[in-house]
Amino acid sequence: MKPQGDDRFNTLAQARFLLSAARLAQLPDDPAAEVAFVGRSNAGKSSALNALCAQKSLARVSKTPGRTQLINLFALPGGERLVDLPGYGYAAVPEPLRRSWRALAGGYVERRATLRGLVLLMDVRHPLTPLDRQLLTLAGTAGRPVLALLTKADKLGRGARAATLRAVGAELDPAAATVGLFSVPEGLGQAAARNWIAARLGLAQTAAVSRPD
Ligand SMILES: Nc1nc2c(ncn2[C@@H]2O[C@H](COP(=O)(O)OP(=O)(O)OP(=O)(O)O)[C@@H](O)[C@H]2O)c(=O)[nH]1
Ligand SMILES: [Mg+2]
User: Fold this and answer.
1) CA distance 127 to 143
2) Which of 38, 41, 42, 84 to mutate to test the pocket of ligand 1 (most atoms within 8 A of CB)?
3) pTM for this predicted structure
4) What is the CATH number of domain 7-201?
5) Which atom number of ligand 1 is nearest to the Cα of residue 66?
6) Which one of 72, 91, 97, 205 is most buried, counting C-beta atoms within 10 A?
7) Mutation probe of ligand 1 site: the residue of 37, 58, 62, 118 with most atoms within 8 A of C-beta
C-alpha cells in the first residue's frame, strides 16, 4: 500500500530501466548520483531493488545464481540512478568470470565518481562471507557509505534474526555501515532502506515520516 504523500516512495516507484553495461566505459558520464546494490550471487539484490521500487520486474530475479553479469542501471525522474551490480562468489562461476567481476563491479565500487552509497545484500543465514568482507574493505578504502541489509529474514525466526543483526552490527564500523534486516515477503526493512537511499541520492526530503515496517 502506498501511503499518501510519501514522495520518496513515489520517486523510487518511477525507476525505469536505462541501460546495461558490460564495461565501465559504457556507463553514463553525466554527474547524476548513483546508489548501487552489491552482494553475493543469489543474496537477493534484484529482489530488493524491485521491492524498494514497488515493481515486480524492474530488475530480473533468478533462481539460477550468477545470472546478472552486467551492470544494470535504472533511472529516477530527477536523473539519479539505481545500479544492480553482478553478484560475486557463486562457486560454479569459472575463473575468467571472477576476473571480469573484479574488473567490472570491483572497478565500479573503487572508481565510479558518481557513486554515493552501496547497499550490500547478505543472506541473513550466511552473512559476512570472505567476499563480503573484501567488498566492505574495498568500500571503506573508497570511502563509500554502506547500508548492509540482511536479506531473506523471513527464513529465520525472530530470535535468530535479532541475534544475527546484533552479531553483524558488532562487526561493522557504525561510522561506515548501517545494518538492518530485510525481507521482501514481509516488507521488513523497506522503509528504512528507502530513506537511506533517498538521503544518499539527495532526493527531496519532503516526506519526514516514512511508512512503518
Ligand atoms: N524467502 C525470500 N526469498 C527471497 C528474498 N529475496 C530474494 N529471494 C529469492 O532469492 C533468489 C535470488 O534472488 P535475486 O533477487 O535474483 O538475487 P540476486 O542477488 O539478484 O542474484 P544474482 O543476480 O544471480 O546475483 C530468488 O529465488 C528470490 O525469489 C526474500 O526476502 N525472502
Ligand atoms: Mg540479480
Assistant:
1) 22
2) 42
3) 0.90
4) 3.40.50.300
5) 24
6) 72
7) 62
- Sheet containing 34-39: give its strands across: 16-21, 71-75, 81-84, 34-39, 115-123, 146-151, 177-181
Residue type, position 45, single letter: K
Return d(Cα 18, Cα 60) in angstroms, integer.
Answer: 14
Give the closest ligand to the alpha carbon of residue 56.
1
And the C-alpha cell for 184? 521482501
Give 144-182 pLDDT, tens digit per residue: 999 999 999 999 999 999 999 999 999 999 999 999 999
Q: What is the pLDDT of residues 57-90, one digit of tens each?
A: 898 776 665 555 789 999 999 999 999 998 887 7
Residue ranges covered by each domain of the chain: 7-201
- Measured between alpha carbons, how far is 126 from 135 in angstroms, rounded to an integer? 15
